[in-house]
Amino acid sequence: MTLNLNIAVFGGDGIGPEITDPTLKILQSLSSASDEYALSFGVAPAGAAHYASTGEALPPSSMEIARNADAILLSAMGLPDVRYADGTEISPQIDLRKALTLFAGVRPVTVRAGQESPLKIPAGKEIDFVLIRESTEGLFHTQGCGELTKDEARETLLITREISEKLFRFTFELAANRKKSKRGPGQVTCVDKANVFRAFAFFREIFDAEAKKHPDLTADHAYVDAAALLMVQKPWEFDVLVTENMFGDILSDLGAGLMGGLGLAPSADIGLEHAVFQPCHGSAPDIAGQGIANPFAMILSAAMMLDWLGIKHGNDALAADGARLRHAVETVVSEGRVLTQDLGGRAGTAQAAEAVAKALETL
């Protein structure tokens, strides 16, 4: 029996629609070729441009589409010159995280053999780790609502047992799946600042309690400053890292830098029932409409979506197509013949996406 799934699509701002369209074409092609699953897509208007024209950044109708979808594919959002009255950015993606309790921000970092990287990677080594960022609380808890007086400003960091337990359970399950598929050794590193902040000591205590439930996996700790150093010195030694919201925000961009830029950085924000998949980069309005935007991060985010849907629904065809799509992008990047300008090439958006589609045919 064919598994029918509905995907909510947020086209985004700036280059968002330009990288969404070729990604949907690839997904439609995969769906059409499968007897095991079928994807349908529902467009959900939102974002800075929508706010500028309607006064709503995330309309209730779009939130309803997201809630009823099997997964959410969200493109780059936000425009630097469109803001709320208080000066904060238009960020429906953060609103979705909080409304749908998407506590696990998944940020894969992968550099395959032959792929260009700012680092000098030793022969025989590849980078393949996942950073898990708690996405609903931490130092982002008071986003837009911090205390401000003439002489001082305060923000509140929040770490709760309820969310942390869910986060660590998810993290260890992901590490176990990576170990099972031979993508990692089954090592989970808690990244914190427990030597300074009581909140992070609390965070670590909850991590250690969950670690005891997984004797087949290895658990350790790293202070965030040391983790940042090791991400530059020996990133190939990491498997799965888990951390607080703000630390994860910073380290995930460092991870993108290891890959050569945000144009190769996909992400997912996952909860118990819902999940959003989106590229880590912004909407790049300065190049919008020129057909030169890098679609790889958006396509890789779609691959993560297929993989997640496959695991959630026990559908091997979905998971296999997710892996194929990821491998197709990695193949194109490693070969280096069809790269966009941000990666040192000359290809446009359509040409780069077409290269991925052709690589899929051989996998």
From TrEMBL:
Isopropylmalate dehydrogenase-like domain location: 6-356
Keyword Ligase listed: no
One Pfam family this sequence matches: Iso_dh
EC code(s) of this entry: 1.1.1.85
Matching InterPro entries: ICDH/IPMDH, IsoCit/isopropylmalate_DH_CS, IsoPropMal-DH-like_dom
Record-linked SMART domains: Iso_dh
Any one GO BP annotation for this protein: L-leucine biosynthetic process
Any GO molecular function: magnesium ion binding
Entry keyword set: Amino-acid biosynthesis, Branched-chain amino acid biosynthesis, Leucine biosynthesis, Magnesium, Manganese, Metal-binding, NAD, Oxidoreductase
Cofactor requirement: Mg(2+); Mn(2+)
PROSITE patterns: IDH_IMDH
Subunit (UniProt): Homodimer.
Family statement: Belongs to the isocitrate and isopropylmalate dehydrogenases family. LeuB type 1 subfamily.
Name this polypeptide is given: 3-isopropylmalate dehydrogenase
Species of the source: Shimia abyssi
